[in-house]
Sequence to fold (301 residues):
Amino acid sequence: MSDRQELRARLEALLAEARASGEYEALRPLLESALAEPQSERRDDSKIPMSYGMVGDSKPMRDVAALLDKVVQSDVPVLVLGETGTGKELVARALHQYGLRKGKPFLAENCAAVPADLLESELFGHKKGSFTGAYIDRPGHFVAADKGTVFLDEIGDMPSPMQPKLLRVLQEGEVRPVGSNKVIKVDVRIVAATNKDLRAMCKAGTFREDLYFRLAVLTVQLPPLRDRKGDVRHLVRFFLDLMEKEMGRRCTITPEALELLDRWRWPGNVRELENEIRRTVALSDGTIKPSDLSPQIRALA
Fold:
């Protein structure tokens, strides 16, 4: 038995004697305080504030939740704006999962990650033999997600030749697969997201203004993590629980380390914080201390 376990056993015996002798109320605060785990070894198990799958109860996040309350049951296109790593896809999934198309397909595509010559095929499909490598007919996201939702991430990076084709989908509700002369009627809700200033791109002529107004019928602006006072602590608890499930490692954090995380500006937002917690859980001895944090965060001390 460790020294701490032996001490705990003795204190529990004293607590039992105090109950029997009627002196419990007088001794309870002292004994229960001694029995408590050290602060750095405790996990705050109170409920983590969450709305629409997003963690946090700061004023900016409450405003986002209030807006989603109003728009989630609508069926019009939504444009989600925010810096990289703020959780734009979470908003898109929330609009789908809590909206009128719940239970129907949800398909996402990153417009910046697919070569321009393949994006049309990914979204609208293609006919067999329409280009090298097209060995079979392929429906594309808009057909596969009929009655559901298509999420177009990084819409600001959509190639110019694709923009009028997407506009036609929004206007007419139909797509034409690559290599086909027939159009297919589709019924999808489009949610788009970007970290770019689309209005400025419209003025510069790099993004179609008519497409912008079609996409931005409703707009959701996500705040950066640095403006979400108090949410870092909730997110840390959330990610520690998540890492425990993923890695099978239960890990706690000292108040000093948590304070440094709370003070960091998080240019990569929630995604950067998740990566930081994932790294420290993997490398720590079970308790995250300031020395376990990234050098730039440790420097705040």
Notes: The chain has two domains: 59-222, 226-298. The longest strand covers residues 189-194. The radius of gyration is 26 Å. Confidence is low (pLDDT under 50) at residues 35-45.
